[in-house]
Amino acid sequence: MLFRSGAQRAQGRPQRTLSLWLGQKIQAVPRSARISTREIIDVAAAALLDGGGRVLIAQRPPGKSHAGRWEFPGGKFELGESATAALARELREEVGVEVRDPELLCTLEHDDPQRRVRLHLFAVERYTGEPVALDGQALKWVPLGTLATEDILEADRPFVAALQRRFATAI
Prior knowledge:
This protein is mainly beta and 171 residues long.
């Protein structure tokens, strides 16, 4: 335990704090502060667009959590992998396409009971190959304007609005 003379409670007594490095600074955090010890999993996912105003979604296969629900194709980063490298590898493995010029649309964090997931959603308008289900999942093309009516995973829902804003003229 560290007692910092500069960390005072309203009652004037020293407050128990933990020192954390944040960049070049040391930050005193009250011991009562909740610091998550859950693992953060980085995931790259793609809104693969077909040029006709449709986006590809994948159905979670039986045996996986949230089976039967729809999501954007993608998956977990491997150790040391960048977001774009993870995206390229996952789309090659899952749907058999090679991405070109992916555009990072947004990044968000989502909590589930076991872990925190950091999702990186890319818009991919240029790719080679025809998407096919290589991972046993169902795939379907959905008009961007009706994407919100699909049974999309909660973690992916904010991406629907981001996509619709980004490609508003295509809807």
